[in-house]
Every structure is written in C-alpha cells, then in structure tokens.
Design brief:
By secondary structure, the protein is α/β, with parallel strands linked by helices. It folds into two domains: 5-246, Metallo-beta-lactamase, Chain A (4-Layer Sandwich); 253-398, Rossmann fold, CATH 3.40.50. The chain has helices spanning 57-68, 83-86, 89-95, 105-114, 185-188, 190-201, 205-216, 235-246, 265-279, 295-304, 321-332, 352-363, 385-398, and strands at residues 5-8, 11-13, 16-18, 23-24, 28-29, 34-36, 39-42, 46-49, 75-77, 100-103, 122-124, 130-132, 137-142, 152-156, 161-163, 222-224, 252-260, 285-289, 305-315, 318-319, 336-346, 365-369, 374-377. 44% of the residues are buried. Bound molecules: flavin mononucleotide. Flavin mononucleotide (FMN) binds next to helix 9, strand 19 and strand 21.
C-alpha cells in the first residue's frame, strides 16, 4: 500500500522510513530510525527528485506509482548519488523506459562507478542551468562536499521550494509527520538534527558556508531535504543553526565534561568539578563517560557547547584509547573555537594531560587550552582541591 504526503498543490513526498537500521553509514546509531525522502512533481512534465535506499525501495516504488497514477515519469533529478538516495535509480528506469535522468557530470561518473545503470538516458546540467517542466522552472546549484563532491541542490524558482539534498536533513523516522510545524523541533528533533549534521557534514563547514551564501541570494520558501522533516516556516531557526555549526561557533555557553575512568577515581573528580561549576552558577554542565557514550553523541555535544573538559587516566604512557579516539574524531571533523581544560590521572607516570594538551594545540585549530592541568595521583584528595578551584574560576572567567 502506498503512503505519500502532499507537500504543495502539485508536489508529493514519496519517501519511506526505516526503523530497522541500527547504524547509519554502518557507524552512527539511529535509535529513532531514519527517513529517506524523495519527491514527485506533477507538472506538464512529471519529475521525481532523487530516489531512496534499497531497504525501502518497495515502499518507495509504490509511492511513486501511486502519485503518478498512470502518467509517464519524464524526468528523474538526482541531487546526490550516495546509495541511501540513489540506489533505486535502476529500479525506476526499468519501470519507466521514458525517464531521462538529470544530474551533473561528477554525479554521472559516480552512478557508473556504483553500477546504477542509466543506459544513455541522461541530461547533464551544471551550476546555474535552468530547466522548465511546464509551470515550474528550476535552477541547479552545485553544493560540492555537502556532503559528497557531486552534490547539488535544485531550486524551484516558481514556488521557492529548495530540494536541498543532504543539507538540512536529520536522523529520525518521521512517522506520518512531514513538516517542521507538525513537531516540536526544538524539543524533540534538534539533538538528532545536530548529531546528523555534525557527524555527516561537520567536517565541511567552509563548503556549507559557501552554499549558505548562495542560498542567501534566493527567496527560499520551503526546504525539502533527503532525510527528516520538510521546512515550510521558521526557516531562519534552522538556517541560524547551520550558520553556527558550519562556522564552528558554539550554540551555548556551557561545559561538556568528557571523562575516561577505569576504577571510578577520575569520574569522581569530574563529578566534583561539575558540582563546583554548578555551585558557582554555571549550571549548563553535561558529563559523559567516553567509554560508553557513542562518539556521534560526543561530537554533537562538542559542536553545541563552548567549553570542553577532558578528564583522562593515563594508559600505557598514553591517553586512554577511547579518549584518544574522541580527540581524533574532533580533528577529523575540524572542530575549532572551543575552550578546553584538562584533568589527568596516573598511578606512576602520569602523561595523559600533556599529551592531550599537545594534541589540542598541535592538531586542532582555535582551541584555547586553559593553563593549569589538575593532576591526580590515582585518586583525588584535598591536596588537589585548590587547583580544581582555580580551574573552575578560569572556566567561568573565560565565559565572560
Ligand atoms: C592497562 C593500564 C595501563 C596503565 N598505564 C599507566 C601509565 O602508563 N601511567 C600511569 O601513571 N598509570 C597507568 N595506569 C594506572 C591508571 O592510570 C591509574 O590507576 C588511574 O588512577 C586510574 O584512575 P581511575 O580510577 O579513574 O580508573 C594504567 C592502568 C592500566 C589498567
């Protein structure tokens, strides 16, 4: 049975939800599932914008056929070739020998590499090209590295709909809802949206900024992404988040306290630091155990908050491996412009603190590391309390 939603008078959502997939890109947990969005425009010509992941192909095909209700499918616009959106191209073309695929040169190259057979039925477009489907005229805008090199977005100049590919997407199955105003986005969706952006596109801030600058020049009324909700009002809210995330500016003043602890002593010290911060009035404090928090959540929180405290045991003269992994991911995703503080622990040769400091100074950009490291010798005692109190003062002062 088909399951579609009307987006505008002649545009339909024909996507599908996947509740079974546990790891997006086989790496990021998605406990709330994910949606694969595609859209059909019924103009003088009919147009399908993108396809869907193989896992939901059957539902997707039923949806497309239901909306077409017997009409031919004239065009398939592919904004992004990543298989979670493009895997069903061949299925569409098999069912619709009349369909012409519209995309760009790099996209067609990737389609050939993945074996998405288009059999010479294609029309190549580039930045700024215009195409009319009858009442609707669209223009194609290159969006390289948002989030692959071939990515483009398609803007319908007739009604202001932006088909934004992976930009403005979010994790989470949409379950009947489609529009941002059908949910409490700021309460129930922003964390998934942030975790999606920061882990999937976070590395490419400058490319996102470039796209946002181009977007600022056009009158966007609605955003139709390839995952998550369609934005039809309050676009500024989400744009503002994208501006912050892509420029690596924190959303909030607050402290992210990530700790690595085997026997609980470093955790206990981290708790004391959190308590002292709260007592001094900094209540926006969040503690995470690096060993049992998926890295995608840590990265998301790192983008959200202004300050990070690294509290780590020493492990074989090195940084605790899971903490090291977190630092490596911060580097990979280009995280910048944060203030950091360090608590280290060791029982005979404590090196974690200086190694973390060197990593932050040498491998990342724009990280201010507060001067004093709190050093613990196995467990926190009152002897270290003054240095912890100094750290609390430094953190709070650095927020002014
Ligand atoms: C496998 C392993 C390697 C360790 N390597 C070091 C080390 O190189 N230098 C050091 O000072 N302590 C080392 N330690 C000791 C811990 O860092 C230390 O006991 C720390 O206080 C544990 O704090 P926790 O209670 O938060 O786990 C090691 C411990 C383990 C289990």
């Amino acid at each position: 049975m088909h399951c579609v939603r009307k987006v505008t008078e002649d545009l339909y959502w024909v996507g599908a939800n996947d509740h079974r997939l546990t790891l997006f890109e086989n790496i990021h947990p998605i406990p709330r599932g994910v949606s694969y969005n595609a859209y059909v425009l019924l103009d003088e010509k009919t147009v399908l914008f993108d396809t869907a992941d193989w896992s939901v192909c059957r539902q997707f095909l039923e949806n497309v056929e239901a909306v077409l209700s017997g009409r031919p499918l004239n065009y398939l616009v592919i904004n992004h070739v990543e298989p979670d959106h493009a895997a069903s191209i061949t299925e569409i073309l098999l069912r619709h020998p009349e369909t012409i695929v519209i995309s760009n040169e790099k996209a067609f190259m990737l389609m050939r590499q993945f074996g998405f057979s288009i059999d010479g039925r294609y029309e190549e477009v580039k930045e700024g090209d215009i195409k009319s489907f009858g009442k609707h005229t669209v223009t194609f805008v290159a969006a390289p590295m948002v989030h692959w090199p071939e990515a483009m977005v398609t803007f319908d100049t007739t009604n202001g709909v932006l088909f934004s590919a992976d930009a403005f997407g979010t994790f989470g199955a949409i379950d009947g809802k489609l529009f941002n105003d059908e949910v409490n986005f700021d309460r129930n969706w922003i964390d998934d949206a942030r975790r999606y952006y920061t882990n999937i596109v976070g590395k490419y801030g400058p490319h996102v900024q470039y796209l946002l600058k181009k977007a600022a020049g056009i009158d966007i009324k609605m955003i139709c992404p390839l995952h998550g909700l369609v934005w039809r009002n309050n676009l500024g809210y989400f744009m503002d988040k994208y501006i912050k995330w892509s420029s690596y500016e924190p959303e909030e003043k607050g402290v992210l306290l990530v700790y690595a602890s085997m026997y609980g002593n470093t955790e206990s010290a981290a708790s004391l630091l959190a308590t002292k911060l709260v007592e001094k009035g900094m209540t926006n404090v969040y503690m995470y155990d690096v060993s049992n928090t998926d890295i995608s959540y840590l990265i998301s929180e790192t983008f959200r908050l202004s300050h990070i405290v690294f509290a780590s045991v020493t492990y074989n003269l090195g940084i605790y491996p899971k903490m090291h992994n977190y630092l490596m991911d911060m580097k990979a995703l280009n995280i910048q412009n944060r203030t950091a503080a360090i608590i280290e622990n060791g029982s005979w040769a404590c090196t974690a603190g200086s190694l973390i400091r060197n990593f932050l100074n040498d491998e990342l950009k724009g990280i201010t590391v507060l001067d004093d490291t709190v050093t613990l010798n196995s467990s926190m005692t009152s002897a270290q309390e003054p240095s912890m109190d100094d750290m609390v003062t430094s953190i709070i002062d650095s927020m002014k």
